[in-house]
Automatic annotation (TrEMBL):
Annotated family: Belongs to the PRA-PH family.
Known pathway: Amino-acid biosynthesis; L-histidine biosynthesis; L-histidine from 5-phospho-alpha-D-ribose 1-diphosphate: step 2/9
Protein name: Phosphoribosyl-ATP pyrophosphatase
Entry's localization field: Cytoplasm
Swiss-Prot/TrEMBL GO biological process terms: L-histidine biosynthetic process
Name of the gene this protein is made from: hisE
Reaction catalysis annotation: 1-(5-phospho-beta-D-ribosyl)-ATP + H2O = 1-(5-phospho-beta-D-ribosyl)-5'-AMP + diphosphate + H(+)
Enzyme Commission no: 3.6.1.31
One of the record's GO cellular component terms: cytoplasm
InterPro entries recorded: HisE (IPR008179), PRib-ATP_PPHydrolase-like (IPR021130)
Naturally occurring in which organism (per UniProt): Nitrosomonas marina
Entry's Gene Ontology molecular function annotations: ATP binding; phosphoribosyl-ATP diphosphatase activity
Length: 110
């Protein structure tokens, strides 16, 4: 199967772990450390919420792209890849959130 943009971007991010921070945004962010990555994700999340409130669909697309991009950097920080997240979504496929929550609640009570 052809690598997707998520796979290719994750590979690029991986190569940036040892790149020069002066010539790479990803390297700069990775070298800035965990807290800075988390701060960017909080910022991009807020910007996505604001875009949605604005009601401009293309703005939502751009802000979601920023958010996903920064989430990929966070995954790389933890040694994870998009495949790990996609595998988790596949594991959940077909299991209703309502049913899953009910079984979780029953487990907590039992
Ligand atoms: N997809 C992206 C991408 N999306 C957003 N951004 C950058 O993420 C930043 C978003 O932060 P903001 O909007 O808050 O802008 P900012 O004020 O410059 O950021 P801060 O100074 O607050 O950190 C901007 O600098 C954007 O240019 C991206 N930078 C890089 N990529 C991809 O990552 C690859 C590697 O990039 P480099 O590591 O820079 O070579 C590129 O080839 C692209 O494919």
């Amino acid at each position: 199967m052809q690598p997707t943009i998520l796979d290719r971007l994750a590979e690029t991010i991986e190569t940036r772990k040892h790149a020069d921070a002066d010539s790479s945004y990803v390297a700069k962010l990775l070298h800035s450390g965990h807290d800075k990555i988390l701060k960017k994700i909080a910022e991009e999340s807020a910007e996505t919420l604001m875009a949605s409130k604005d009601g401009d669909a293309q703005h939502v697309v751009r802000e979601t792209a920023d958010l996903w991009f920064h989430c990929l950097i966070l995954l790389a920080y933890h040694g994870l890849t998009p495949a790990d997240v996609l595998q988790e979504l596949e594991r959940r496929e077909g299991v209703s959130g309502i049913v899953e929550k009910a079984s979780r609640d029953a487990g907590e009570k039992g």
